[in-house]
Specification:
The complex is a heterodimer of chains A (about 325) and B (about 325). Chain A has about 325 residues and is α/β, with parallel strands linked by helices. Chain A has a single domain, classed as 3-Layer(aba) Sandwich (Rossmann fold). Chain A is built from 11 helices and 12 strands. In chain A, helix 4 packs across helix 5. The two termini of chain A are about 30 Å apart. Chain B is α/β, with parallel strands linked by helices and about 325 residues long. Helices cover about 35% and strands about 25% of the residues of chain B. In chain B, a hairpin with a 2-residue loop joins strand 4 and strand 5. Classes of the chains: A alpha/beta (about 325), B alpha/beta (about 325). Chains A and B meet through helix 7, helix 8 and helix 10 of A and helix 8, helix 9, helix 10 and helix 11 of B.
């Protein structure tokens, strides 16, 4: 479906976000240097129309910051984001507003992402008003009812408030809101993580259906590897602000190349007692993104470590088959 | 035959709420043998944690009450014990670890203060002896350089390390039963793997029994010997782990297993369970799963199915198995 020649919907190059941590007044008076938290540290990826890129990693690896950078909810420290060959970061306010119609977000917690004081009608029609997509009240009403049906909620719910719904239903409302402006790219930041497995399965199927129906492109962020495997065409694995491995989902999961990807997969407890028990193949705990030392971020934990790892940061290099890995010792 | 450490018989826990009575645990029976690990698995609101709290007699009364049933711990009737006798049981003979170590541990005391407090009051240890024992416990749970971390506060530890501290505290009085309520749910998958390894290793080494509560079927598949599946306050399936995973007999268990995305399968769509969990203050008559069940028959709407043996040691509460 996707051809190499077609220009990607979204192209990200060297995306970086550093947060400077100023510390309290005492440390400043003592002349201590501000620390830098490198949340996202120079990542590259692209998204073609109609595909799903899964972004996976453990807490604090920069997945959510990446989502916020791509939607310009936070401004990057460096890097380029290209949306349909246009420089997203150079957009003036008016053009950015139009771009927001193209890029929509679905968050993890539908309890905090929906305004408790507004009805579902209001929550779903407001984006249409803002982007001038509905002419009359009747038109809005018709579109909202249509959306509710698309996400599998009964039209009788339209005048209710968020607290009258379960977590799964609220997440359907959040998805309907994202779809209200007919976006091209939907970024899901852990959209199924807070849900019970039986509801999670319903939502994953819904994401699939909507993608086919509307030709959506997904940037799907999750920490659950099985969810990522299920929903993604391609996967990027993040560790402490870096993409360490990326490639087609099937190849990456069947034959992981980076020691960190291998460790993540070995740690997943699979729901089958016949499978090997989960174990940790790395030493110690996740490294800190605050003033990280030069070299590979996995230094000190990696079983394949050699001297060069502590000195030179491994670049993400293509290894064929659409796969890229950032490791000195493949 | 292994000795039974914990036995629940037809335990029912009810809460009297303003919006009506809520039966959170409904006729739950299971037994855990010495050295055995039992997993109680189910989705949110199924009654897993209330069951655990009932064993510890930690149900707030009112509004809650253990309405009926028997709980036997090492042959003693837990429900007949006085508050003073319960205090002698909790922490000493039955210990518990929770999901959120940050809220289960006290932020204004050092790790040493909290653990040695348990040792001194429960076991009557002297201050220096307790300090030595805390160092030992922290090293057992894999905290690097424990003599240095001893006087740290909880916020100075990472999530995984906090869970280790909580385990050290739980193990401090060598209990014969450990109740772990979603101990790895808040942790990243690599940390989860190490904590699971630690818990199962401890259980084996110390000959403890484990009641493991989780919503994660992957975790029970590896951490437990036998499992009970809970749905809407009932145990709907009970038996040996291998048997249940290989040959699930209750439609809910089948539905749960089909709902999980797999690392190795590549089906385009999952097979979820339709609908949502029933409202627990006004549950449907008959089997509580019938509104979501593809096999529902007339009898399911009228009569609640009883747990019956479908294979040796394998029980399911479903009318499909009641054709005599």
């Amino acid at each position: 479906m996707t051809t190499e020649a077609a220009s990607p919907l979204l192209d990200v190059k060297g995306l970086t976000k550093h947060f400077t941590m100023h510390g309290d007044i005492y440390s400043r008076l003592a002349g201590e240097k501000a620390q830098v938290l490198k949340a996202v540290d120079g990542i590259d990826f692209h998204l073609s129309k109609g595909e799903t890129l899964g972004l996976v990693g453990e807490s604090g690896c920069g997945k959510s910051t990446t989502a916020r950078l791509v939607s310009r909810l936070v401004e990057p420290t460096a890097g380029r984001i290209t949306l349909h060959d246009e420089d997203l970061l150079a957009f003036p306010a008016a053009r950015m507003k139009a771009a927001r119609k193209q890029i929509q977000l679905v968050f993890q917690d539908p309890y905090s992402s929906l305004n408790p004081r507004k009805t579902i009608m209001h929550i779903l029609s407001r984006p249409m008003e803002i982007h001038g997509l509905a002419d009359s009240w009747a038109d809005k009403r018709r579109k909202v009812l249509d959306l509710l049906e698309r996400v599998g909620l009964g039209v009788e719910h339209v005048d209710r408030y968020p607290h009258e719904f379960s977590g799964g239903q609220r997440q359907r409302i959040a998805i309907a809101r994202a779809l209200a402006v007919d976006p091209e790219l939907v970024i899901g930041d852990e959209p199924v993580s807070a849900l019970d497995v039986s509801i999670q399965a319903q939502m994953l199927n819904l994401f699939r259906d909507l993608q086919e129906e509307f030709g959506l492109t997904y940037l799907f962020i999750a920490h659950d590897l099985s969810v990522i495997r299920h929903i993604s065409d391609r996967v990027a694995v993040m560790y402490v602000g870096k993409i360490v491995e990326s490639g087609p989902a099937s190849a990456l999961f069947e034959d992981p190349l980076h020691p960190y990807t291998k460790a993540l997969l070995a740690a997943v407890p699979e729901a089958d007692p016949a499978k090997p028990p989960p174990r940790l193949t790395l030493r110690g705990e996740v490294s800190t993104p605050i003033d990280p030392p030069p070299g590979c971020r996995l230094c000190g934990r990696c079983p394949r470590e050699t001297r060069v790892c502590a000195e030179v940061e491994p670049p993400l290099v293509e290894v064929g088959g659409g796969r890229s890995v950032a490791c000195h010792n493949l | 035959m292994v000795e039974t450490v914990l036995e629940l018989e037809d335990v029912t826990v009810r809460f009297r709420l303003k919006r009506g009575d809520l039966t959170a645990v409904n006729g739950v029976s299971f037994a855990i043998g010495r050295g055995e690990t039992f997993g109680l698995v189910g989705e949110s609101g199924s009654g897993k944690s209330v069951t655990a709290r009932a064993i510890m007699r930690l149900i707030p009364e009112p509004p809650g009450e253990i309405a009926s049933g028997r709980i036997l711990f090492e042959g003693e009737d837990v429900l007949g014990k006085s508050d003073a006798e319960m205090r002698g049981l909790r922490g000493r003979r039955i210990a518990m670890v929770f999901q959120e170590p940050m809220s289960a541990l006290n932020p204004v005391f050092t790790v040493h203060d909290q653990i040695s407090d348990a040792l001194r009051s429960n076991l009557g240890m002297s201050r220096p002896a307790a300090r030595e024992r805390v160092v030992e416990l922290l090293s057992v749970v894999g905290i690097p350089s424990p003599h240095k971390r001893l006087d740290s506060y909880v916020h100075e530890f990472s999530g995984g390390m906090r869970q280790r501290v909580m385990l050290a505290m739980a193990l401090s009085c060598s209990p014969s039963l450990l109740i772990a309520d979603e101990p790895t749910t808040a942790l990243d998958v690599t940390i989860q793997a190490t904590i699971l390894e630690l818990i199962t290793g401890m259980i084996e080494r110390l000959g403890m029994s484990l009641l493991f509560i989780t919503h994660n079927l992957g975790v029970v598949a590896h951490a437990c010997d036998s499992i009970g599946v809970m749905y809407a306050s009932h145990i709907v399936e009970l038996g040996d782990k291998r048997e249940i995973f290989a040959n699930p007999q209750h439609p809910y268990t089948v539905g749960l297993l089909n709902s999980i995305p797999r690392l190795d399968a590549r089906a385009k769509y999952l097979t979820p369970i339709d609908g949502t969990v029933c409202n627990m203050t006004a549950p449907p008559a008959g089997c509580k799963f019938h509104p979501r069940c593809a096999h529902a028959m007339a009898v399911c709407r009228e009569q609640a199915p009883r747990l019956r043996e479908v294979a040796p040691g394998h029980f399911a509460a479903c009318h499909l198995h009641e054709r005599d």
